[in-house]
Amino acid sequence: MRHDNQRLSYVLFLIAGSGLVTIARAMTLSFLAIKLQQSFGLGPAMIGALLGIGPW
Length: 56
Fold this sequence. Notes:
Layout: H1 2-40, H2 44-52
């Protein structure tokens, strides 16, 4: 029974960590898009392409 509780806590920790990373990434990508447009003068299509291939 103790082993199951420990496994559940690991799974919950991984889910919470994944959620935190997803939220942080969503918050930074919007500012990155603004910075790319202001600094480099890129259009929406190019910014979308750059941010889209980022996870690859």
